[in-house]
Amino acid sequence: MVGVSCAKAILGTRRRSAAKRLFFMDLQDNSTSILPSFLWHNVYMNTAMVQIGDWLGLGAPVTEAAVLKIVEARLAPSVVGRLSELGLERAEIDEVVIPSRTLQHRKAKREKLTLEESDRVLRVIRVLSAAEATYGSRERALAWLRRPHARLDGRAPLSLLKTDTGSRIVEEMLVQIDEGFFVE
C-alpha cells in the first residue's frame, strides 16, 4: 500500500481510484521495480489517451512513449480531416497544424505528415481533450480555446498551440481552471 500512498501524493487525492488501479496494474505486470512504473518515464495515462486513439482512428496509446511512437511514425494526411470533424475550422487548422496547400501536396504525393506536423496534430488533440474534460463539452471547450484571454496577452489559447511552449502554457491554464486556482 506504500505504492498507493505514493501514487496518491503524486496524482492528488482527486485521482485516488486511478492511483489504485495504476498501482495494481503495476503489480499485475509482475514488475520488480521498487516504485510502480507509472512513476517512471512510461506514465500510464487517463481518458485523454483513449480520446487520442479514438480521434486518430488508432488504438489508445497506453503510455507517453506510445504517443511518441505515433508521432515518430508520422501520421497520414487523412487525420487532418478528423480535426475538422472535431469542430476545428479549416482556417484554424491552417494556422496551427498545416496549411491547406501543403496538405493537398502531401495527399497528391501520398506522403505522410512531417514529424512536426504530426506533433502539432497530437498537440491540438491533447489540448482539446483537456479543455473538453475541464469544460464538460466540446462546444464549450472550443469556445474557450477561441476566445482571447487577458492572461495570454489578449491571444486565444488555440493560437498558442503552434509551439510546444505555447501548448504547455494553455495546458497549465486548464489545470489551474480545473483545480480552482483560476476562475475563467
From TrEMBL:
The molecular function terms in GO held by this entry are: DNA binding
Q: Pfam families in the record, alphabetically?
A: Xre-like-HTH, Xre_MbcA_ParS_C
User: Which residue ranges does the record assign to the Antitoxin Xre-like helix-turn-helix domain?
Assistant: 69-126
Identify the residues that the record assigns to the Antitoxin Xre/MbcA/ParS-like toxin-binding domain, covering every copy: 130-180
- The protein's name in its UniProt record: DUF2384 domain-containing protein
List the top taxonomic levels of the source: Bacteria, Pseudomonadati, Acidobacteriota, Terriglobia, Terriglobales
